[in-house]
Amino acid sequence: MTRGIFVTATGTDAGKTYITALLLKTLRQGGYAAGYYKPALSGAVLSPAGFVPGDADYVCRTAQLEYPPEEYVTQMYKTPVSPHLASMREGHPLSVSQVADHVQRLSRSYDWITVEGSGGIVCPLAPRPDGGHIFLEDLIRLLAIPILIVAPAGLGTINSTVLTVEYAQRRDFTVAGVILNHWQGGYMEQDNLHMIERYTGVPVLAVVPEEATAFPVSAVTLSQWYKEMIFT
């Protein structure tokens, strides 16, 4: 079993990378050996030094990780579409064995790995030889780690969050909690929080305001989250 959590979301642009970076920044500034991993990344930018994996680059700079960002990503694609489609255009599709090997290597350097998914929880990552696809859920099952769901705090989040939680739970995944991103407060967002907890049975672990520079939970508390999520 991998020691870590899997950060997914209710959809694209919910803020997975932003939340992942803040989680790792807080843990690492607290002295914890926390690492990062992203199986597949689309929309990599070409620079004079080669492709730059934007999401991983942001996380590495924010959390001050030791290795270059490409060391934390198994497959990078230039085309800014779903990884399965990008791999069909560019070649080198992701494989489950590559993910297992990469996470095993990273686990030698870190106590915990925070894995960042692509898009929402129903994200195809690569075509299979049999005509099917490798989905994000295949990697969650492979790594056997709990899920943290990032959701926007505003209008529409009740529907998307409840559906995401139910999808994960029907597949017997452990949903550790929800993080509400882009939090502005007010009666609607407070009600969204209440309704999500009531109709999923999953706790909203934190709310993160716009343009936060630190996660609103201490490193010690975060470390307890990771320990409880992983080892209980």
Structure write-up:
This protein is α/β, with parallel strands linked by helices. It has a single domain, classed as 3-Layer(aba) Sandwich (Rossmann fold). The protein has 8 helices and 11 strands. The strands form 3 sheets. A 7-stranded parallel β-sheet has the order 5-2-6-1-9-10-11, with helices on both faces. Strands 3-4 form a two-stranded antiparallel ribbon. Helix 1 runs parallel beside helix 2 and helix 1 (16-29) crosses helix 8 (219-231). The longest helix is centred in the first third of the chain and has 14 residues, at 16-29. 46% of the residues are buried.
Distance between the termini: 13 Å
CATH superfamily: P-loop containing nucleotide triphosphate hydrolases
Query: Which parts are unreliable, with pLDDT below 50 for 5 consecutive residues or more?
Result: none
Helix content: 40-55%
Order of secondary-structure elements: EHEEEHEHHEEEHEHEHEH
Shape verdict: globular
Structural class: alpha/beta
What is the number of beta strands? 11
List the helices and strands and how they pair.
Blueprint: E1 4-9, H1 16-29, E2 34-41, E3 45-47, E4 50-52, H2 54-63, E5 73-76, H3 83-90, H4 96-107, E6 112-116, E7 124-127, E8 133-135, H5 136-143, E9 147-152, H6 157-170, E10 175-183, H7 187-200, E11 204-209, H8 219-231
Parallel strand pairs: 1-6, 1-9, 2-5, 2-6, 9-10, 10-11
Antiparallel strand pairs: 3-4, 7-8
Short description:
With 232 residues, the protein is an alpha/beta fold. The chain contains 8 helices and 11 strands.
